[in-house]
Amino acid sequence: MKRSPMTAKGAERLRAEVERLKSVERPRIIAAIAEARAHGDLKENAEYHAARDQQSFVEGRIQELEGALSYAEVIDVARLNPNGRIVFGATVELSDENSGEEVTYQIVGDLEADIKQRLISVSSPFARALIGKSEGDSFEFRSANGTKNYEIVSVRYQA
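Now predict its structure.
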């Protein structure tokens, strides 16, 4: 299996999620299953089946995260110095050349991506369009929503 890049901050978030799943969610679900079992007939016990479904989901998520962390190549973004070029881990401030609207994204690993937090996956088409460019460059990006022109306002590397 290929090692996949992950920011140190992202790896820490995923480790915290694994810890929460193991120390909080797993015991809560085990208690819910025990309580549901105490109610008798398991065939028609909706609480039991719901708790088992939750248990299955949590155990699957723990395995997924532990697997991803074991194959992750954790990169300390603050130590990168790619001479102003955009690479994995960059925080990029963009200006939409049509509307003037500014937006900031950080390019992160696939599993830590979260568009609500403006964390975009290194394998996404938008991140691919950014990689290799520098501050001051302009580029055109075509998506399902149409074509947009952006100018790269700033590129920085921070933890």
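The beta strands are 4-7, 72-75, 91-96, 102-108, 119-121, 138-143, 146-156.
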